Amino acid sequence: MSLKDVAIIGGGVAGISASLVLADIGFAVHIIERDVQLGGHAVNFACKATDKCSKCLVCLADELVLKAFQHPKIKVLTGSEVTSFSGKSGNFELQISQAIGEESLFKELILKVGAVVIATGFMPFNAEEKKEYGYGKYKNVITALELEKDLRLTGKVLRPTDGAIPKKIAFFQCVGSRDESIGRGYCSKVCCPYALRLSKLIKSEIPESDVTIFYMDVQPAGKCFNKFRQECEELGIHFVRNLPSKVYGYVDSDFLRVKSLSGDKGEVVQNEFDLVVLSVGMSPQSDARFLADTFGVSLDRYGFFEGQGFRVNLSNVPGIFLAGACQGPKDIEESIVHGKAAAVEVARMLRV
Fold first, then answer.
1. Which of 126, 241, 315, 325 is disulfide-compatible with 122, CB 3.0–4.6 A?
2. Cα–Cα distance between 83 and 87 in angstroms, integer?
3. Considering the domain 6-121+285-350 in this protein, what is its CATH number?
């Protein structure tokens, strides 16, 4: 190891993207990932292509993971976490605890590096905090992330209670986003695009299904987003500009009642669905506070790592850089770009 080595904390798409740029330049890179695999959440997402590519970019995650393992300048440390940190810009020392095997054994490693990139990603919002929606109580209330995993593993949309194909499906938007009552006044940016892509995929796979998206505002993402929404409407996907107030049902029941206001008259109505999908937003990673205290890095009011003005890849500590959704909500494409930008900042500093 040399002081031109770089430590990347987090092996999601942002961390890997930063690693590949730095490794291609010639820096030795150490990816420190606490999970047993690389790729972050993205490796659990499903391809949402129907008759054509939906540009969800999920396919890039697997490609990035493969490139990281194959690159001779990148060393991957899975099952690993930073336990302590010392030094200054250009001369850092990190103590790493790495799990060995399946017997809860650990070994301690010391890394001496010139720079650190924090790329720890995000946590999905805990839907149980929105008790009125019945997540954790009613089996047929699931999160979009759970739907993604099922689609990736089985290629099917099934009702959890009995494994049947759902006929009436509701998506609730902004679950854990744009909600100051639970301390999350920010937009997570990814929820509208993935809900529309998932809805279109469901209509493609189950043409007879009735899909409704309940929303506060549909946030455009990309220049083709409005066209994509129009395609969803042409397929018969319903858009209701009103967030439901309550989900009712019986614990073992297959059907759910959704209470909301009608869009035209403002009257309270109840509609029956057999699957409710909660479009959960992004929350700060569970170890964000620990890492912030360890490295002396600032967090913003919501708990994400805080960039420095327009140079959002820079932390308040020289030599510590930020990449991806740990700095604020980002989709796959933006996380990749943000990771590459962090690598440029690192290279600029270390080559001085």
1. 325
2. 14
3. 3.50.50.60
Residue 278 CB neighbours (<10 A): 29
* Number of C-beta neighbours around residue 110 at 10 A: 10
Contact 315, 321 (CB under 8 A): yes
Total number of residues shown for the chain: 352
Mean pLDDT by 10 residues, the chain (352 residues): 84 98 96 95 87 81 95 96 93 93 82 97 96 94 95 92 94 94 91 92 92 86 76 90 90 86 77 96 95 96 94 96 97 96 96 68
**92: enclosing H helix or E strand:** strand 91-100
**How do the domains of the chain map onto residue ranges?**
6-121+285-350, 126-281
Buried-exposed string 298-318: b where 16+ CB fall within 10 A, e elsewhere: ebeebbbbbbeeeebbbbebe
| 129 Cβ neighbours under 8 A, 6+ residues apart | 176, 182
Asked if domains 6-121+285-350 and 126-281 share a fold, the reply is yes
pTM for the model? 0.93
Give the helix ranges, DSSP H, for 172-319: 191-205, 225-234, 288-295
Tell me if residue 299 falls in helix, strand or coil.
strand
Give the largest Cα separation in the chain, rounded.
68
Q: At what angle do helices 191-205 and 225-234 cross, to 10 degrees?
A: 30
The Cα 310–Cα 313 span in angstroms is 9
